[in-house]
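1st attempt posting a full record on here, be nice pls
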Amino acid sequence: MRAQFVLSEIGVGLRRNLTMTFAVVVSVALSLALFGGSLLMSDQVSTMKGYWYDKVNVSIFLCNKSDAESDPNCAKGAVTADQKKEILSDLDKSTVVDTVTYESADQAYKHYKEQFGDSPLAASLTPDQMQESYRIKLKDPEKYQVIATAFDGRDGVQSVQDQKGILDNLFGLLNGMNWAARAVMAMMLVVALMLIVNTVRVSAFSRRRETGIMRLVGASGFYIQAPFIMEAAVAGLIGGTVACGFLVIARYFIIDHGLALSEKLNLINFIGWDAVLTKLPLILATSLLMPALAAFFALRKYLKV
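the predicted structure (as tokens):
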């Protein structure tokens, strides 16, 4: 009987404050969709880092005759056979190096022609203008500085370049966008909480006569508060369900179908459905608990039971 009464009061409250209930649902849905989106963005950045950092190389470019005439780092002339042997020997001894691949000037010229053959500059290049290099795969991509310190400025070395630095700029941009989404999410959560508190206050005020009678007949404080708390929880849960729907639809249309980024951007390792599905219970739990707690504390201050 009591459960039936509480459920009937929830329905009455939601219908009586339909406009504010709708506002709560929309604000909770948007804020939690951003919350879930920011979590998925973090997963995507981590997945991309793991995928790309495992493929980046450190390149040690060796001096050639052209560099000896124009580059201060090659002032002592082109790299010699003994210098190349010494560099390779030190790389083999290094504990941070996984594999080393040598690329000759002819191979570098061939690769350049394959990639940039249509460029006007390609017609004027000759193999002797290309640099020999060692392409190094590190056991830990974060250990680039070890290689740079050991080989940068050494005789015969023109430069040491880390491809990871290029990726760091991309990941920095993605992380910045993620933090911006989190800031918007925080503002939306504040708006949602304010709407929930105001909705509860309006609902409690509109039913002050009923709650007064319930107090007179000895109803407990929790029994009086329960319909208001559950109204907020139900509205929040609806908003959380909508937010989950947004995330599922976004993943389906942006990555798998519609835009189909997984087909158009084959170089990006996108997060799978498991990452999305594991976030849904967290979003639903947040959508249920956040409004309920907000309503509970609002009632303690405004209902005076």
